[in-house]
Amino acid sequence: MNEQQKKIRAMLADRKGILLVHYYARPEIQEIADVLGDSLALAQAAARSDARMIVFAGVHFMAQSAAMLSPEKIVLLPRLDAGCPLADMAGPDAVRKMRQDHPDAVFVTYINSTAEVKAESDICCTSSNALKIIQALPPSKKAVMLPDGNLARHAAAATGREIIAWEGCCPIHQALTGEDVAARRREHPRAVFAAHPECRPEVLALADFVGSTSAILRFARETKAMEIIIGTEKGILTQLAKENPEKTFIPASDALFCDDMKKISLDDIERSLTTMQPVITVPRQVSEAAKKALDKMLAVS
Question: What is the Cα–Cα distance from 225 to 248, expressed in whole angstroms?
């Protein structure tokens, strides 16, 4: 740990706070996390933590979820401009309109969404538990999944359920093409390919394994393959290399880099802990409705 990392850890201890960090965050922040995980693990940590305050090294929707799951805690997001283009692809008005078109459907909303959209939903999901959530729905119920169309199509194919997909996407995962994967395979013929379900269907069709960030980490630990092509954001490579120093990990594309996930720096976290700003809050009316959808997800998970 460098001096700034030690200072941040001391500030967190002094304020009885915890640092929640996503696998896509900068390596130097991952190193000092109290909880390092994917969206599901971080949501679960926020819900059960007895800390007085939470610092989130991720993006805005994640800090919103933490604030709703732990309303008695102070939740800090060191950079308010750390957003999510996927979350911006669905708004509450559009969801309400779609609910009118499908009044009997269950609306399953990816955690990568705003609090206002979660509030219009029946249950949330993450890439870790999406299949479990869909399988738990009553067989007679039609399902609508939003805002990630690729995740919805993957869930439909994997579960055999008819799912109406919202046509949003993560621009980072969408940038990965089948041609990119084919090129990496030619360069590394012995490698297996692990992909995130936010990728295009034609990319997932080429994968030896499809799963969330935490599932990809588990696959990497368990596979006998010594070379693994990784079809998700590059930030995961830090933990992959740490857990599997004897294995080689190859990014499927240089495009798999999320600027928003890398915005928060150590300087930002130190400044946030010094000023106790910016605090993330969600209006009570929105929070109460959105928390119901999050709680239903956590109950199934």
Answer: 9
Kindly state whether residue 289 falls inside one of the protein's structural domains.
no
Cα within 13 Å of Cα(245), Cβ side: 1
Q: How many Å apart are CA 195 and CA 199, to the nearest integer?
A: 7
The total domain count for the chain is 3
Given 132, 154, 170, the domain boundary residue is: 170
Reported as a pLDDT band with limits 50, 70 and 90, residue 164 is very high
- pLDDT by residue (tens digit) across 243-284? 999 999 999 999 999 999 999 999 999 999 999 999 999 999
Distance from C-alpha of 92 to C-alpha of 115, rounded to nearest angstrom = 9
> How many Å apart are CA 144 and CA 161, to the nearest integer?
11
Which pTM does this prediction carry? 0.93
Closest CA to 110 of 162, 67, 165: 165
For residue 74, the domain's CATH number is 3.40.50.10800
- Residues 117 and 184 both lie in one domain: no
